[in-house]
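Model it.
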Amino acid sequence: MSRIGNKPITVPAGVEVKLDGNHLTVKGPKGTLERDINKNISLEIDGNVINVKRVNDQAENRALHGLTRTLINNMLTGVVNEFTKDLEVNGVGYKVQKQGNNLNLSLGYSHPVVFTAPEGISFDVNQNVITVRGIDKELVGQTAAEIRTKRPPEPYGGKGIKYATETIRRKEGKTGK
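Modeled.
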């Protein structure tokens, strides 16, 4: 029995949900999201409440039950409120500039790193903090992770790009005699 999967999902006001076979479309004030639902999962839409049901109790279907409910809930949340992820750029000479929809990152390499925003993602830059925003939670997280890979934080000097909520375990460097 899935505690998460059995919870009903309440559709917020101003959001339109349409189910066409196994294809779910959610349209809200911020945009439209679409997702294909697994054939072993069924959705029951009653007014402004969505219930997620599974066909049987096989292990794969039990795993998909809670996952599908969470993905649908994230879609409904995203079209009403945007998801955001904050990244901090730390290091001497490291800087970030926004150029149109792209980020121009100076990260200590011999060349600037240009990061192009995927469709549906926008960036806000405030000094050394990059805010990634969008209606698709999965895409926001993936984009933030890709930006972080351009220069991951290192434990000795603390330089690099890290999530705002991330803590870096610092290490002590070599000591001379």
